[in-house]
Amino acid sequence: MYGMRMSEAFVPTLREVPAEAEIVSHQLALRAGLLRRSSAGVYTHLPLGYRTLKKIMQIIREELDAIGAQELMLPIVQPAELWRASGRWDAYGAEMFRLKDRHDREYCLGPTHEEIITALVGAEVDSYRQLPLSLYQIQNKYRDEIRPRFGVIRGREFIMKDAYSFDRDPEGLNETYERFFRAYQRIFARCGLTVHAVEADSGAIGGSHTHEFMVLAEVGEDRIVHCPQCGYAANVEKAVAVPTPWPVTASGGQAEAVATPGVRTIDELEAFLGVPANRMIKTLFYLADGEPVAALVRGDRELNEVKLATALGATRLEMAPPERIEELTGAPVGFSGPVGLSGVRIVADHEVVGALDAVAGANAADAHLIHLDWGRDFAADVACDLRTAVPGDTCPSCREAALEGASGIEVGQVFQLGTKYSEALGARFKDAEGKEQPIWMGCYGIGVTRTMAAIIEQHHDDDGIIWPVTVAPYQAIVVPIKATDADQMEAAKKVYEQLWTAGIDAVLDDRDERPGVKFKDADLIGFPVRITVGPKALAEGRVEVRWRDNRREERPLLSEVVGVVQAGLRERARF
RNA sequence: CGGAGUGUAGCGCAGCUUGGUAGCGCGCCACGUUCGGGACGUGGAGGUCCGGGGUUCAAAUCCCCGCACUCCGACCA
């Protein structure tokens, strides 16, 4: 038996922290020899890292196969015409990697695969008898991220599992969605992750009902809010923002213009006038499908573009360029307000309805208006929920407790797409009455490479990674203290072979290094268990079994090692 | 895309202000002494100083133009 020896393994560990890595999971992935960067946001997965990825993928396969999903492999290179058909060739924008072939035909590197799979299923499925159907693949995805960061957490090339479901009707879609939801909970649990499923926004992909699976982590890029009382949890982009009452209850008298030379931002205005931001009206100009719109939110609030787009029923929403703002208001950017605006639809957040003694731009250079009252001085065409929720808001679900905030890494998302893609791409079937119907679709993603990073983020200490046994590249490492000692090496090899025979992934550290070096590497890489073969214990026919997570050590007889290791691993792999 | 910064040996960095032909630590190779938590000594290998142009007798160093990478921001008026 030969197997895996550290003396020959391609595991380039690093003693020092590479300058390129900011967050702990990225640093450890580089130091432990899992990853190397090739270019911005593009990574090579070294043998050890790839083993972990394969274990994650295997868990995903087992759980998805168990709910009847079938694996297939879709193309990375996808024709533009398909994306034009769904309207996303333009909608996806700069984030899409585009290329042309020698005949000048346009393609993209798939950022996702709804178009391809819908076209496929549309072509092959004709009858309700062929539904429901769930298909998935594990594949490289390409997104030219505006700013790749955090190593593999936001890469431009990454591995994703994406699944697509096809049902006859909304009820079927609901059932499928629930099945995937539960499968996801099992997948992440088996990966050793604590995840929170939160209500999310469906964004550019379209669709209605959707949840994100979040790994809570300081470095997470997504902000979520959750209710400690009723369990409501949502991405801040999606969370319904319960309005708080306007801070003052009396009019300030007649509206009045004040000179505010060069004061353009809310912060500057707050300092200049001594009025708190929550009494200001922030006026933002957008083009909704080309039509100008003014959106009003309280000065200290953040406008949520998705909510605005939904409120307007707009498919394309972009900020108005500064020239356009000047045209509409007659004033430079920074002095816009709702008073006297014409030719623009005005949409207000609930919170500004009923505002009294408010401050806003005067639509004239270097001037603002004070003492503004809702109804008397300005109004809106529509009032709705426009702002991004924040921690401290009243829970929109139970209306009792205050929401708490957290940040998370999104490792998975489940969507109910409905018929958006099936209609755009003509994926129809004949129902039992022979009537043509669009297929009801769902899609379900898991960021595989990101999941690996999230696991490290959740499982490490000062010495290195602490792999959950289910995803550890190897479960055990056998370390003879002195590689040149024949007795130790012989005993170590025997233990190592027994572990293999018992089906345990093991590595033999046969390097002629000082013990400290080998221990440090073992801790850094994060093998769940280390079996040390040293002179002291060996004299009594024993070895040392040391667990990485709690640093506990036992000293079984040579004949008992496999049983002890097996028992410990099994205990740690339970759910 | 805007702002800031960095690019010198495999990795982490100094040298640049004040121009004179490149250095430190770790790693790597050889030998010796060591050997239970990243040993020590001796000897050694390894560099288009990101690229291109310019100034100069002379450029890692000064100037110009590119490129790459990192961080911050990109609705927050």
Task: Please characterize this protein's 3D structure.
Helix 1 packs across helix 11, helix 2 packs antiparallel against helix 6 and helix 2 crosses helix 11. The strands form eight sheets. Strands 3, 7, 8, 9, 10, 11, 12, 21 and 24 form a nine-stranded mixed β-sheet that branches. The chain has three domains: 268 residues, Bira Bifunctional Protein, Domain 2 (BirA Bifunctional Protein, domain 2), CATH 3.30.930; 128 residues, YbaK/aminoacyl-tRNA synthetase-associated domain (YbaK protein, Alpha-Beta Complex); 99 residues, Anticodon-binding domain (Rossmann fold), CATH 3.40.50.800. The model has no long low-confidence stretch (mean pLDDT 91). With 575 residues, the chain is α+β, with helices and mostly antiparallel strands. The protein is globular. Helices cover 27% and strands 27% of the residues. Strand 22 and strand 23 form a beta hairpin. The chain binds one RNA strand of 77 nucleotides through helix 7, strand 14 and helix 13.
What distance separates the N and C termini? 33 Å
Structural class designation: alpha+beta
Q: If classified by CATH, what would the architecture of the largest domain be?
A: 2-Layer Sandwich
Instruction: Give Rg in angstroms.
Output: 29 Å
- CATH superfamily membership of the largest domain: Bira Bifunctional Protein, Domain 2
